[in-house]
Amino acid sequence: MDALIKEYGSIEVEPINVDEQMTDGDMIGSLKVIHTPGHTPGHISLYYEKDKLLLRADTIYKHIFGADGMYISAPQVSIDPTTAIVSAQRLSKVNFDKLLMAHQDSPLLEGARETVEKLVDESIRKLKKVDD
C-alpha cells in the first residue's frame, strides 16, 4: 500500500454524499445499473443495450500496476477479489460487444464478451487451484 500511496498520492478523501441510492436493475437514463461488488461493496457497472456497451469502471483491467494482460480486480485494488470474480462472471452473461474500462491507455475493448468469459473461467480455475 505504501508504494501505491507514494506513486499515486494519499487515498484519504472527503466523504461522498449520495443523492440517490441505485440498486441492481435501476435505470439512469438509458443506462441499466448492474451491481458489481468486489472492487468496493457498492461498485456498479452500467449497460447501454442499444450499442451493446458495458461500462465496467474498476472491474476488469489490462496493463495497470505493471501487470500485462487482462485481469479481474486484483487484491491490491479490491476489497473482495473473490466477489469481483463473481461479479465479472455475472456480467459475462450480459449481451455486450464493447467494454469500456477505467484507468487504461486504450479503454475500449471490442468483441469483449468472449474475452471476459475466458478471463472469468481462468480466474475461477486459479481460485480452485488455491483451494485444493
Question: Could you explain the architecture of this structure?
Answer:
This protein has 132 residues and is of the alpha+beta class. The chain has one domain: Ribonuclease Z/Hydroxyacylglutathione hydrolase-like (Metallo-beta-lactamase, Chain A), CATH 3.60.15.10. Helices cover 29% and strands 23% of the residues. It contains 3 helices and 8 strands; from the N terminus they run αββββββαββα. The protein has helices at 2-8, 81-91, 112-131; strands at residues 27-28, 31-35, 44-48, 53-57, 60-62, 70-72, 98-101, 108-110. A 6-stranded mixed beta sheet has the order 1-2-3-4-7-8, with no helix packed on it. A two-stranded antiparallel sheet has the order 5-6. β7 (98-101) and β8 form a beta hairpin. The longest helix is centred in the last third of the chain and has 20 residues, at 112-131. It is globular. 23% of the residues are buried. The mean pLDDT is 81.
Strand content: 15-25%
> Which CATH architecture is right?
4-Layer Sandwich
Quote the CATH topology.
Answer: Metallo-beta-lactamase, Chain A
Number of strands: 8
Task: Outline the low-pLDDT stretches.
Answer: none
Mean pLDDT rating:
81
List keywords for this structure.
132 residues, alpha+beta, Metallo-beta-lactamase, Chain A, six-stranded mixed beta sheet, two-stranded antiparallel sheet, 3 helices, 8 strands, 29% helix
In short:
This protein is an alpha+beta fold. It has 3 helices and 8 strands. Helix content is 29%, strand content 23%.
